[in-house]
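Hi! If you just cloned this repository, the fastest way to understand the data is to look at a raw example. We've pasted two of them here, unedited. The first protein comes first, obviously.
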Amino acid sequence: MHACDFPHSYLTFLLDSQVQPAITQSSKPNHTSNHVRILLDCICELTPEGGETVQYVLGASCKTERVNVAEGIWLQPNADFCLTASREHFLVIKTYDHSGRKKMSYPPSLGEQPHRQSGLTKDAWAKFGIEVKRTEGQQLETVQEVIDATLAGRPLVAVTELDTDDGYHARLEYPVKTMNVGQREMFYQTDTGPILFPRKPSGHKLAIESFELAYIAANSPDWAELILRSPSAVSSDITVQHYCEPLRIDCKNKLVALPAE
């Protein structure tokens, strides 16, 4: 069975002010051109009933920064930056210290920068690409095979397939970053993320806007539990984004072991 080789799979984009004005920046750049490469955390193939499948990828999170400067790299206030994209659309999720934090875009004529910004990739970057490398792996059929592959130090990739309440089929593929196994009681349990979770794609103008970030745990081939990133009140007037909303889903789970390096 082929699986994604996540350490060698990326999304890439080119910021080039001489070709395409930037629409996702929050500070004045100290460069005219910047090639960005981000490792992938998750792949989601989303298929509407009777429609065509679209591949979305989630890039690894980073922090908002100034590039090519002698000091003061980290923007203040700083945000966690996560980019989800298909070849046509993008979704930038920025998470600040609290949900009410305001930050202007650059240039300021673009107004206040949203915490969730979506649009066309061609409007955001001079070039954009998704590079998914696949490699042959072994589908693990038994608990013993999962235990053996884990203890042998083999990289693990999980595949979770589910149907949304509004008629979409989602196939999620993601690296297993944390795995629990027990040889005496014969069990395994993933604990990994973030992944993409489509929450009612039909209710959004763009399907990509439906994605929420989540962590996932699974110890069975036919169900899993998510912990979704959701608003959480820490006082009467302050809300933060936190992984705090549990959700059990019926799904099909597979585990794939890649060759040991």
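Ok, and the second one:
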Amino acid sequence: MKFSTGIRMLAFVLASLAAGAAVAKEPPRIVILATGGTIAGAQPKEGEPGYKAGSLSIGSLISAAPGIDDLARITGEQIASIGSQDMNDAVWLELAKRTNELLDDSMVDGVVVTHGTDTLEETAYFLSLVVDSDKPVVLVGSMRPATSTSPDGPLNLFNAVAVAADPGAKGRGVMVVSNDDLFAAREIQKTNTTDLQTFVAPNRGPVGEVYYGKPWYFGVPATRHTVNSEFSLDGVTKLPRVDIVYAHQNADGALIEAAVAAGAKGIVLAGVGDGNASRSMVDALAAAAKSGVLVVRSSRVGSGIVRRNIEIDDDELGFVAALELNPQKARVLLRLALLKTKSADDVQRMFREY
């Protein structure tokens, strides 16, 4: 009797272990959302440098990456088929909505977004502020079109899926994979027109690397993102207009006045040096701030911190200092901030935290 009971218990344990093993072997489920870009670009004539972005479907991109199906159970959706120079608010809102819907599904483990490199850093940062999930979201693009002699897209996409499928990527916020490097959305910046190693993180460096589908992480972002973000797009159908004005030698206030006349709710200064500008520009910005337009000082130089009250009295003029954010990232944060507040003090707090 005891022998029979022992056999039954052993059979039960073995069956439980087998069931657990079966569950453990279930592949991650990753959804790729395609928006176009060079990674989906096609040349009109083989060997020529010109190409049309967003020509190929997401199915074509997946089939061009050998071994990608071994990483995860993959499905794809075509959100847009554009070059990222044409990325717009309608696509942003749809992309954010669909990303949140997918990540809210228990059957989805992560999302990959294919994107052109020109505005990839802006979309990545936008998503990092409005995605309400700690599941991985990974953006990926390429510098060479899909039909080129040696395209970089297939391996970039392979690595992006590998990161999205990795349990270790959970809670790290929105990331970008490019040329074996892994970047936080807030930190990434495009620095070269055509080189494969165009993306860098000038202030804080990459957060990891991915070598043939094997992620290696260095750290996690120190700023707020995703599930810890206060921003939401619930009920939002339109984002406030924010313009960037570029400081240069002999600049006047004409472009600032034009931005205000066009209905800008915020203006970001791409300033010289430490977010500085000519007296004419500063006077025009001060007038804009006095009329209720939120003014943020950033810098055109590419790295460093724009601090408050160094050469310009931000307290007196009602300006916000962008700190580490470059002009294009500062614009993204300011647009979302304006959905919540018109207070320069509140917006400055957001620039410290995000």
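That's it. A detail worth noticing about the second one: The chain has ten helices and 14 strands.
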